[in-house]
UniProtKB/TrEMBL annotation:
Residue stretches in coiled coil: 81-108
Residues of the BRO1 domain: 115-502
Biological processes per GO annotation: negative regulation of stress fiber assembly; signal transduction
Name of the protein: Rhophilin-1
Pfam families: BRO1, HR1, PDZ
Family to which the UniProt record says this protein belongs: Belongs to the RHPN family.
Stored PANTHER family: RHOPHILIN, RHOPHILIN-1
Ranges for domain PDZ: 516-580
């Protein structure tokens, strides 16, 4: 049963209607399905759990070793530690082999392409938020928590589905939807200086080492990492034998680079190595290199190979690919990354750097020997082709003399053969790469092609020593972009919207108990001024008027009228109810915010032109990139002026916009 088939069976979900709450219909993959990818994820999850168990045993043994003074006990514990460390090493090696399994994620097309490097998803444990959420609903919002069991269950089902996303657009939308819902969860249930006491467990995507934090930022960062990892899998599975598949692969790898770069810029003091700055920098460069490789493949498909100038351009593109992979290899060789990156990844990157350098010299030889023309365009292209001037006759003479062209072409072919041999040598040193038949086939074919071409140009009477070909200028027609994640592509509705508008009813706000006042119209009217909506604000009270006598104060919010919930009521609805009240009067349920700065900010949100948080959220998420003034995913940051660390929960990724104030005051 093919993995691709199981993924494609999932239909893309319909968009949720604005202003309604019908629940998410996006689902994850069946964890019991026996696809190649699901089997791989199952094995990774099992090894992650075993590593977690062994690390707990090691921690306990180390504590006992430090605490005991009995030499016999110390010897026994030391032996146990040796056994546990041996088990850990074996488990990590097994996990590394699984994480280095690139073939599972490659395309099933019969076309021969160099395999790409995808990432496996981070695994996470189940988390039960039922009790903590109910406690906040009861204690902070003063609501009956049993009435919100449906919402809590829906959120828990969404998180469970997020753990097994399908490898297509539906899986990406599932991750994005959960990430967007985390914004609302943060605003509703996580006050600035308090946590829910819930621990989020995530495993390192490469080593399987578990990390645990109570900060919701860790959950958000891990989900975003999986967004980038899923894009790498989507890019690797594309059929790159046609330009359409190449373009899809380019888009996927650019979006993966954007997700990792977003984390790198907005994430500090990562609890796991896969989300540390050096690792994310390496992943961004790796994705950019794979984009550049796809660009080269597109150039070779769309460029005719019968023209001298275009053949030189192909050689420059190949040199560019080699350069970016060499940069990735340098990044992987840094101290903080060298021992973390799988050996097969570093070997694959080195193989590609040598392979594409060989292709660069091969295309230069083909251009010189098969397609040379003596026009001005060809002369200009050749003068700008090499990093340094080749030894021997001037290039203007080389263009006119076939023998000089043959000698220079032979020099480039010699470099191509040497580079191919080096690529095959590095390939042979890695056990995992040796198992990849496609890579072996590509390297052997290209090496034989260069060797045959060299033999064709070699002559029996050629006793001159082959000159050393200079390096080739790297140049590309398409510079890779880093596409940041666009959260507005998956609009969501707050699952807990029944708690009330987020502008007032959030974890950061504090308000007094609900007061019920009876308001009757007098000869001078009701004596109050209303402003805004969702909820409607009492903007002013006439001294000595009916409203003041009833107990209304400026800054109160109307949350219910005659027992009916009016938290989401519009300005006009409340005005109509008050105007039509009978002589017996009307009962208003009122709350007053206690936190002054919160009240001011939330009023601005409430008075934004949209009057709806969902719309305001989408406008904020759709803003141009780069407008954030502070990191969004920071926690455990160092205090200014102090060496200690202070726990800081995630700031709002999707801050509600403060739009222009609306002049919608009404006096009664």
């Amino acid at each position: 049963m093919s993995d691709a088939g199981s993924d494609e069976e999932l239909e893309l979900p319909a968009r949720m209607e604005e202003g309604s709450h019908n629940g998410s219909i996006r689902k994850g993959c069946d964890p019991c399905s026996q696809t190649q990818r699901s089997k791989l994820q199952h094995r990774r999850a099992r090894i992650n759990q075993q590593i977690n168990k062994e690390m707990r045993m090691r921690a306990g043994a180390e504590n006992l070793f430090r605490a005991t003074t009995n030499n016999k006990v110390k010897e026994t514990v030391a032996l146990e530690l040796s056994f546990v460390n041996s088990n850990l090493q074996l488990l990590k090696e097994e996990l590394e082999e699984l994480n280095s399994n690139m073939e599972v994620y490659q395309t099933e097309s019969e076309a021969i392409n160099v395999p790409m490097i995808p990432l496996g998803l981070k695994e996470t444990k189940e988390v039960d938020l039922t009790v903590p959420l109910k406690d906040v609903i009861c204690e902070h919002y003063g609501e009956d928590s049993s009435l919100f069991e449906k919402e809590i269950k829906e959120f828990m089902e969404l998180r469970q589905a997020m753990r097994t996303p399908s490898r297509n657009e539906a899986g990406l939308e599932l991750l994005m939807e959960y990430y967007n819902q985390l914004y609302y969860l943060d605003q509703r249930f996580f006050p600035p200086h308090r946590t829910l006491g819930v621990h989020f467990h995530w495993y390192d995507s490469l080593t399987g080492v578990p990390s645990c934090q109570r900060a919701l930022a860790f959950e958000k960062g891990s989900v975003l990492f999986n967004v980038g990892a899923l894009y790498t899998q989507i890019g690797a599975r594309q059929d790159r034998s046609a330009t359409a598949g190449i373009d899809r692969a380019i888009d996927a790898f650019q979006r993966a680079a954007g997700a990792f770069n977003y984390l790198k810029e907005n994430f500090s003091n990562a609890p796991s190595l896969d989300m540390s700055g050096p690792s994310l920098c390496m992943l961004v460069r790796l994705m950019i290199a794979q984009v550049q490789e796809c660009v080269f493949e597109r150039v070779t498909l769309t460029t005719p190979d019968t023209h001298f100038v275009t053949q030189l351009q192909v050689a420059k593109e190949a040199a560019r690919v080699s350069d970016v992979y060499s940069l990735v290899l340098q990044t992987m060789s840094q101290t903080l990354v060298k021992d973390y990156v799988p050996f097969s990844w570093a070997s694959m990157v080195q193989v590609k750097a040598e392979h594409f350098r060989a292709l660069s010299h091969y295309n230069a030889a083909v251009a010189l020997c098969d397609h040379t023309r003596g026009d001005e365009e060809s002369a200009t292209a050749l003068f700008q082709f090499h990093v340094s001037t080749p030894a021997g006759p001037p290039l203007s003479q080389v263009l006119r003399d076939p023998e000089d062209r043959r000698k220079l072409g032979k020099a480039h072919l010699r470099c191509a053969v040497i580079r191919h041999e080096e690529a095959m040598r590095v390939h042979g040193l890695c056990k995992i790469l040796r198992k990849m038949d496609i890579l072996q086939e590509v390297l052997s074919f290209m090496y034989k092609r260069s060797l045959d071409k060299y033999s064709e140009m070699d002559r029996e009477d050629d006793f001159d020593e082959t000159a050393e070909a200079p390096e080739i200028h790297s140049q590309t027609q398409h510079k890779p972009d880093i596409t940041p994640p666009n959260f507005s592509t998956v609009p969501v509705t707050d699952i807990f919207q029944r708690l009330g508008p987020l502008s007032v009813f959030c974890a950061r706000a504090r308000w007094g108990p609900v007061r019920v006042v009876s308001l009757q119209r007098g000869d001078g009217g009701l004596g109050l001024t209303l402003r805004g909506d969702s909820p409607v604000l009492v903007a002013g009270v006439v001294p000595g008027g009916c409203a003041q006598e009833a107990g209304l104060r400026e800054g109160d919010y109307i949350v219910a009228v005659d027992g009916e919930d009016f938290k989401w009521a519009k300005h006009g609805e409340v005005v109509h109810i008050l105007k039509s009240c009978s002589d017996r009067g009307i009962q208003l349920s009122i709350i007053t915010l206690h936190t002054h700065h919160t009240q001011v900010d939330r009023r601005q949100v409430m008075l934004s032109p949209s009057g709806d948080e969902a719309n305001a959220l989408q406008r904020t998420m759709g803003r141009a990139k780069g407008q954030s003034t502070a990191p969004l995913l920071n926690w455990n940051r160092k205090k200014n002026g102090g060496g200690g660390r202070a726990t800081k929960r995630l700031g709002s990724t999707f801050s509600l916009p403060f739009g222009n104030l609306r002049d919608s005051e009404s006096m009664y």
